[in-house]
Amino acid sequence: MITVHLKYEIDPYRIDDFEEYGRRWITLVNRFGGNHHGYFLPSEGDSDIAYALFTFPDLARYERYRKDSATDPECQAAFELARRTQCIRRYERRFLRPLDASPTQTGGSSGERP
Hints:
Blueprint: E1 2-10, H1 15-31, E2 35-40, E3 49-56, H2 59-69, H3 73-85, E4 88-96
Antiparallel strand pairs: 1-3, 1-4, 2-3
Helix pairs in contact: 1-3
C-alpha cells in the first residue's frame, strides 16, 4: 500500500476555488481505484496551508492513475480550474507507507533512531 501526502500552499482568498478543486479530486482518485482520505483545510493557524491524503494498493496502481489522469477530461478540467483561479501557489508530494502492529510487515528498519 502507498499513501500520498500532499501539502498545498494556497491563496487564502481563493479558498472556495480550492474547495471545488478538492471535491473534484476526491471523486477522481476514487474512480481511478484509490481511496481518498480527504482534504484538510485551514481553520486555526496558517491560513494558506492545506493537506490531502489518498492511498493506492501499490505503487504500480498509483503510477497507472498518474498516467491515465494525464489524458482524462475530468482530471484535465480540475487541473485547469487550479490554473485559471491560481488557488494553488505550490505543493509538495510525499509517499508514505502505513505502519501496523504486525511484526511481519516488510520495509524493515535501518536501526537508526529519529
